[in-house]
Design a protein that fits this description.
Elements: H1 3-42, H2 61-73, H3 82-86, H4 90-101, H5 114-126, H6 130-133, H7 151-162, H8 173-179, H9 183-194
Helix pairs in contact: 1-4, 2-4, 5-9, 7-8, 7-9
The structure holds heme C (HEC) (2 copies).
Length: 197
């Protein structure tokens, strides 16, 4: 093969690689700017420090995307999220999902009531929460991560499903689960899940 051709081929490959690199660097910068608008409520690095606002870090990509779609479609209602989702398109939803899913998940705080956690673990086993949310409660696909999520938000979410205020995805999975739960069970299971690493 002539040398000239080889060096041309090499520089073409290098150019293509560089092009891809700078495009994704630009995408990264754009998505970081978008995500900065979320940090005011959802916290730095997607870890919420605010009551009733969930952490987003480490949630499955698909779960995040679906929730944004549900807010936009109005099937999930929240006064604070409503104006946010009116401003974002499908491309943003894809990149925000990818961005937050790749951040390190929240670590549960120190458990000051291990007895309540024990009770909560029994509830989770009895109601087979892990059969959908996975054994580590990291979630998968359209099923949420629960491990390390804010405790009072988990309680709120379960009561929202129980009351039929949050419908969720196509299958009425969570409505069925939560409807059958007592307040005591909800309190215990939320405490257990919030303290998982
Ligand atoms: C003004 C405060 C505020 C801002 C800014 C905000 N959010 Fe939210 N977000 C909330 C609240 C409050 C909830 C919980 C809603 C509920 O209780 O149902 C929420 C819920 C969510 C959920 C569902 C998470 C879950 O675990 O169910 C996603 C996903 C989400 N927000 C993404 C975003 C993204 C992405 C941005 C930035 C583009 C953003 N939010 C900006 C307040 C905010
Ligand atoms: C049949 C499958 C299934 C089972 C069993 C199940 N879940 Fe879920 N769960 C889901 C799905 C799917 C979602 C996302 C629903 C949506 O889009 O709102 C979800 C969402 C949740 C959320 C909302 C999380 C968030 O960040 O907004 C909580 C809290 C929750 N589940 C707790 C539980 C608990 C506790 C149990 C056991 C008592 C349980 N789930 C059992 C499928 C299941």
């Amino acid at each position: 093969m002539p040398r000239q051709f080889i060096s041309h081929a090499i520089s073409t490959v290098a150019l293509i690689a560089l092009g891809a690199l700078s495009a994704s660097a630009a995408d990264n910068a754009a998505i970081k700017e978008k995500a900065a608008a979320c940090a005011g409520c959802h916290g730095d690095n997607g870890i919420s420090q605010t009551e009733n606002i969930p952490s987003l870090a480490g949630q499955p990509d698909q779960f995040l995307q679906w929730q944004l779609v549900f807010f936009r479609a109005g099937s999930r209602k929240n006064d604070q999220m409503q104006p946010i989702v009116e401003e974002i398109g499908n491309e943003d939803i894809r990149s925000l999902g990818a961005y937050f899913s790749q951040l390190a998940p929240p670590k549960g705080p120190e458990d000051k009531d291990p007895d309540l956690s024990k009770k909560g673990a029994q509830v989770a086993t009895g109601r087979r929460c892990a059969s959908c949310h996975t054994d580590t409660y990291a979630g998968t696909k359209a099923v949420a991560r629960l491990a390390g999520q804010r405790e009072e938000y988990l309680v709120k979410a379960l009561f929202d499903y129980k009351a039929g205020q949050r419908v969720g995805g196509g299958v009425a999975a969570m409505a069925d689960v939560a409807y059958a739960m007592s307040e005591e069970e909800i309190t215990a299971v939320a405490h257990y899940l919030a303290h998982l690493q």
